[in-house]
Amino acid sequence: MPGLFGGSHRLAEQHLRQSLKYNPHSTASHFFLAEMYLDDGRRSEAKTELQSVLEAPFDPDWEPENQDFKEKASRLLRTLTSARL
Description:
By secondary structure, the protein is mainly α. It has 4 helices and no strands. The longest helix has 21 residues, at 63-83. The chain is flat and about 35 Å long.
């Protein structure tokens, strides 16, 4: 949620990190962390989280979502990598 409406990247990061304690391979949590890091200008950390999305094993209960997040992470990582060249 934007800061204007009471959102906080600090709190969002805490919640996402906490969720990774329960499921360290959550593609959603890693992807949302990457987006937040990009918003904060933390490219290196964002790339690490995007790589975690790509390396996460597929969860059969969340296969469509995992595939979607992996595709988004791959595209975003390519964009970040090519932007540096």
